[in-house]
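Thanks for the sequence, V.! I ran AMP-binding protein right away. Repeating your input here for the record:
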Amino acid sequence: MKTESGGDISWVTDKLRETQDSEFLIFKGQTFTYDDLLARISFFQKELEQNGIREGECVALIGDYSPNAIFLLMALLLNRNIVVPLSNESREKHLDMFEDAKVNQIIEINENDSWTLRGGSESASHPLLDDLRERGESGIIIFTSGTSGKSKASVLSAGRLLEKYKTAKRKPLRTLIFLKLDHIGGINTLFAILFNGGTIVTSDSRTPESVYQAVDKHAVQVLPATPTFLNMLLMSKADAGYNLSSLKLITYGTEPMPQSTLRGIHRLFPDVRLKQTYGLTELGIFSTKSKDSQSTWMKVGGAGTETKITGGTLWVRSESAMLGYLNAPSPFDEDGWYDTGDQVETDGEYIRILGRKSEIINVGGEKVFPAEVESVFLEIPNVRDVLITGRKNPITGEIVAAEAVLEKEEDIKSFRKRAVAHCKQKLQPYQIPQIISVTDRKLSNDRFKKIRNV
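Predicted structure:
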């Protein structure tokens, strides 16, 4: 199964066998062990063969973290298939995604965890996919979030992604899996739990109440989330009545963390370590170290990863990088470096993410980072959420606009007056929103990440 360094995943079953008597998954009141996982992977490998799914075929897997979804994902990878994990929430995009990813077969996990198989495209030729097939490697195609444009189909080598877990020896922990199966952060969390012998805990839904209930009931130790969802936790005030003392670590990533949200989460969970993560669909997830639980400064790197700062932007070169996009040109330079588009500040070995270069608001030559203004706006009483964007202006080029979701109805003129007064205390004049509106629409997508391409 090995054709070049990083492509071999034949070690996977032996690694899982090391903890075969331990709990691997808690799902809707059912508990599964690693022994169950191994048995079901073996069962589904035979099912794939009987259903005519051949090595190298591109297979869409639609579902969430149910037992059969996990069993099938692992069976497909060991069958040397190219897997396209998709969520139910992106269903309106599925036909386009099937076409972009050259999908041959489609497996859908139903609500009762049964599964159905149907055919996709017969022709699935693309140089990147053909390269994986020629080397006898399994792969994963993950679509970017599309929050700043069309979703791109990233082709990743499963062997490269899994390589860092081959000798993993971290303490096994109970982790509530939050980021979805179609997200690089979700895939990374899944693999990190499995290959360290930990336990996956699922919640009935991704709401503050459901997450708190799962933490309480199953003594969850690790909660991976996004800044947007952590702000939802704060605003919900739903923690009362739950025993959350088992929590030891909350990780956050995928978008800049507003300092006000970080302070609020630290107050809510003073004994829990807060750690910022960093990664991209195109590169995988990297090792990070936060300065402390109240800091957004972090070190980024780890084995197989190089970083550099050019013009205030973070560039990364990684051994786990994707092979390329199926539906867009390669973003790598001739030396393999990738421009993340993230503007950063540096403090010795530490960096702080300010925001995406493409999201900077240029007000008369002054740079405004949305996350910085959002952090201040979220301090305003009665603000549940806010989205900061730029609007064109004939004099300054752009001005700052704020779209806020309120906890309870309020006179718009009164709210604007309060908001401007608060911002004047914390922000430079060019950073203060000149347009302030109130909305009841969702400001984040199904991955709990702010939607800025509106």
